[in-house]
Amino acid sequence: MSDNGNSDFGAFLAGFVIGGLVGAAVALIMAPQSGEEMRTQLVARSTDLRETGAERWVDYRDRASSIVADARSQAAQTTAQVQEQARIVLDEGRARLRTHAADETGPETETAAQAAPATPEDDQENK
Hints:
Blueprint (H helix, E strand, L loop, with lengths): L1 H29 L4 H71 L1 H9 L4 H7 L1
Helix pairs in contact: 2-3
């Protein structure tokens, strides 16, 4: 029985030594750089990140400016279209009103309605 005990102890000791050697090898491979190397690497990485951030900022700012310019242009076009449609509707309404007033009162009211503008805009259009 004592041979079996020595064999177990030898296996344990061999495993302990081999594990220690493997651990030491891994520690040497995975060891961090020296302080100076680490600082140099950090400075280089932060510089790269700063430059990338600056480039992206310019790209995003340019995109945003382009989108805002497009939105302003579309808003101006829509505003012009709405104003034109409103002007058409108002003109049609005025024409109908004048026609209706002329039909009810006779020819003398029609000439008075044509002579006097209905709104200040009509007055400006006639100038």
